[in-house]
Amino acid sequence: MKSKDICRGIYYFKEVNMDKTEHMQSFDIRLLYIFSTVAELKSVSRTAEILNLSQPTITKSIHQLEIFLNMSLFTRNKGMMLTAAGQRAYEHSQYVLKSFETFGQIRSKDI
Protein backbone atom coordinates (compact mmCIF):
# COMPACT_ATOMS: atom_id res chain seq x y z
CA MET A 1 0.00 0.00 0.00
CA LYS A 2 1.49 3.34 -1.01
CA SER A 3 -0.47 5.60 1.35
CA LYS A 4 -0.81 4.98 5.06
CA ASP A 5 -3.01 6.79 7.51
CA ILE A 6 -1.28 6.94 10.88
CA CYS A 7 -3.03 8.00 14.09
CA ARG A 8 -6.21 9.24 12.42
CA GLY A 9 -5.23 12.79 11.46
CA ILE A 10 -1.97 13.40 13.25
CA TYR A 11 0.58 12.21 10.68
CA TYR A 12 0.07 11.17 7.11
CA PHE A 13 2.31 9.59 4.56
CA LYS A 14 1.20 10.86 1.21
CA GLU A 15 2.56 9.92 -2.15
CA VAL A 16 3.78 12.86 -4.16
CA ASN A 17 4.56 12.45 -7.84
CA MET A 18 7.71 14.52 -7.55
CA ASP A 19 10.59 12.19 -8.45
CA LYS A 20 8.31 9.20 -7.69
CA THR A 21 9.19 9.42 -3.99
CA GLU A 22 7.03 9.44 -0.91
CA HIS A 23 7.17 12.34 1.51
CA MET A 24 5.90 12.56 5.03
CA GLN A 25 3.57 15.46 5.55
CA SER A 26 2.94 16.32 9.18
CA PHE A 27 -0.45 17.42 10.35
CA ASP A 28 -0.97 19.59 13.41
CA ILE A 29 -4.09 18.74 15.43
CA ARG A 30 -4.46 22.45 16.21
CA LEU A 31 -5.59 23.00 12.61
CA LEU A 32 -8.64 20.87 13.32
CA TYR A 33 -9.37 22.75 16.52
CA ILE A 34 -9.14 26.11 14.72
CA PHE A 35 -11.24 24.80 11.81
CA SER A 36 -13.97 23.44 14.07
CA THR A 37 -14.08 26.68 16.06
CA VAL A 38 -14.46 28.77 12.88
CA ALA A 39 -17.16 26.36 11.68
CA GLU A 40 -19.08 26.73 14.94
CA LEU A 41 -18.71 30.50 15.26
CA LYS A 42 -18.88 31.24 11.51
CA SER A 43 -16.36 34.01 12.06
CA VAL A 44 -12.60 34.34 11.72
CA SER A 45 -12.47 37.45 13.92
CA ARG A 46 -14.51 35.89 16.72
CA THR A 47 -12.39 32.71 16.56
CA ALA A 48 -9.20 34.78 16.73
CA GLU A 49 -10.54 36.61 19.76
CA ILE A 50 -11.60 33.44 21.61
CA LEU A 51 -8.44 31.46 20.81
CA ASN A 52 -6.21 34.47 21.43
CA LEU A 53 -4.67 34.23 17.97
CA SER A 54 -4.39 36.79 15.19
CA GLN A 55 -6.87 36.80 12.32
CA PRO A 56 -4.07 36.12 9.80
CA THR A 57 -3.09 33.04 11.85
CA ILE A 58 -6.68 31.74 11.70
CA THR A 59 -6.92 32.44 7.97
CA LYS A 60 -3.55 30.79 7.30
CA SER A 61 -4.55 27.72 9.34
CA ILE A 62 -7.78 27.30 7.39
CA HIS A 63 -5.87 27.72 4.13
CA GLN A 64 -3.30 25.09 5.21
CA LEU A 65 -6.07 22.64 6.02
CA GLU A 66 -7.78 23.30 2.68
CA ILE A 67 -4.51 22.62 0.88
CA PHE A 68 -3.89 19.47 2.94
CA LEU A 69 -7.39 18.13 2.19
CA ASN A 70 -7.40 19.51 -1.36
CA MET A 71 -10.89 20.98 -0.93
CA SER A 72 -12.61 24.23 -0.13
CA LEU A 73 -14.07 24.10 3.39
CA PHE A 74 -15.88 27.45 3.56
CA THR A 75 -17.75 29.88 1.39
CA ARG A 76 -16.58 33.34 2.33
CA ASN A 77 -19.47 35.62 1.41
CA LYS A 78 -21.29 36.75 4.53
CA GLY A 79 -19.49 35.01 7.34
CA MET A 80 -17.76 31.67 7.10
CA MET A 81 -20.27 29.08 5.95
CA LEU A 82 -19.26 25.45 5.50
CA THR A 83 -19.36 23.94 2.04
CA ALA A 84 -20.79 20.42 1.70
CA ALA A 85 -17.23 19.08 1.85
CA GLY A 86 -16.55 21.36 4.82
CA GLN A 87 -19.56 19.93 6.65
CA ARG A 88 -18.23 16.38 6.16
CA ALA A 89 -14.77 17.52 7.27
CA TYR A 90 -16.30 19.16 10.34
CA GLU A 91 -18.10 15.95 11.32
CA HIS A 92 -14.87 13.97 10.96
CA SER A 93 -12.90 16.64 12.83
CA GLN A 94 -15.24 16.27 15.81
CA TYR A 95 -14.52 12.54 15.89
CA VAL A 96 -10.76 13.11 15.67
CA LEU A 97 -10.77 15.82 18.34
CA LYS A 98 -12.83 13.70 20.73
CA SER A 99 -10.54 10.72 20.10
CA PHE A 100 -7.50 12.89 20.69
CA GLU A 101 -8.99 14.18 23.95
CA THR A 102 -9.76 10.61 25.07
CA PHE A 103 -6.23 9.57 24.18
CA GLY A 104 -4.87 12.34 26.41
CA GLN A 105 -7.07 11.19 29.29
CA ILE A 106 -5.89 7.60 28.96
CA ARG A 107 -2.28 8.71 28.82
CA SER A 108 -2.56 10.78 31.99
CA LYS A 109 -4.34 7.98 33.86
CA ASP A 110 -1.95 5.22 32.83
CA ILE A 111 1.32 7.03 33.50
Automatic annotation (TrEMBL):
InterPro entries: HTH-type_LysR_regulators, LysR_HTH_N, WH-like_DNA-bd_sf, WH_DNA-bd_sf. Residues 27-83 form the HTH lysR-type domain. SUPFAM superfamilies: Winged helix' DNA-binding domain (SSF46785). One of its GO terms (molecular function) is DNA-binding transcription factor activity. GO terms for cellular component: cytosol. Pfam families: HTH_1. It comes from the Bacteria. Signal peptide: none annotated. PANTHER family: HTH-TYPE TRANSCRIPTIONAL REGULATOR YBHD, NITROGEN ASSIMILATION TRANSCRIPTIONAL ACTIVATOR-RELATED. This is LysR family transcriptional regulator. It comes from Periweissella cryptocerci.
